[in-house]
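Give me the fold.
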Amino acid sequence: MPSSGSESPYHGATAALTPYKGRDKPESQKQFNRAHAKLRGPGERANAQLKTWRVLRKLRCCPHRTGQLVQAIHVLQAREIRAIQQG
């Protein structure tokens, strides 16, 4: 079983499973690490994208309104990316 430290890297979680470390792991541990990376990757990319949106750096409003703003920015950005890809 992978380690589940008492301090979770995820806000609000009591514990989180972390990948196996080291070399020469059995195939079962390698499979777990691959599955863990597939689940974690999209969240990591989303957080990285949020950090590039300058408007969020000094935002002073309630969390609900912040969520609405993030959703709106995401829609606009996705639309822009689709327009670029279509030529």
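The radius of gyration is 18 Å.
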